[in-house]
Amino acid sequence: MTHDHADPHAPVEVDLSDGPDYFDVMVHALQEILVDKGLIGAGEVRARLEVLDAVEPGRGAALIARAWTDPAFKQRLLADGTAAVEEFGIDNYDGTRLIVIEQTPDVHNLVVCTLCSCYPRPVLGLPPDWYKSRPYRARAVRDPRGLLREFGTEVPPEVTIRVHDSNANMRYLIMPMRPAGSESMTEAELAALITRDSMIGVTTAKLR
Amino acid sequence: MISRYAIGDRVRISARYAPGHVRTPFYVRGATGHIERVLDKFLDPEREAYGVNAGTETQLYRVRLNQSTLWPDYSGEPADVLELEIFEHWLEPA
After folding, report:
1. Nearest chain A Cα distance for residue B9, angstroms
2. pTM of the model
């Protein structure tokens, strides 16, 4: 892609001047073999990508807003995240298990996957690029308070930090604390306060 | 089958360095903590990576480590903790 920004209407072009990398080649080769053998169709690959891209953080926000307004649902969500998410109508398409962790006045929770990019995709969609970056993955476990400060989140010394490394089979969703002053808000209004980052634990839910 | 460890048991994460598809991060190997909760059994990723699934279901745990013992120069608060998932064959009684 050209780095000349003179024409904002110039067509976007993919720069293949360096050629595909090792993994590009491997993925394409594997896909071609599977399609040639009739095991999958090219349309199925496309449809799967569409499923991955269709999930947005708003789905998780609606889930948490329900938990904020329905104490019995909140209890079920904290007791068995996977079952409660399915009850809420979310398609747990990747078959992973979900643990929902509640932020409290005494404990601030933060999620990271130090080994790769494990993330509650059926609930939040694809992870942001920074979540997959090596600096985030290293610093979330090594210096969580300094990292949170850079996200604008100052955790007081009397509040314990609890970091969750999503390194194997479970996935983690953080339930932020419902902000004071939101008592009269509807479930839909509450959902608008619950951001993606607050469900990863790098920030809190705030009144707008 | 009963799991080998129960909630609250003190455990040490093995300091082994075998190659392969290992889900035990380097930064916790040799660290001591306790079982935060007992999870289900899952296919052993070290064997699954090589196509071996049958009979490899292995007990998974969440282990809680104290940050100030994990990182000698930890700059946060003494009560800060880190939790992660460790398969049973990576744990030793401590």
Report:
1. 19
2. 0.90
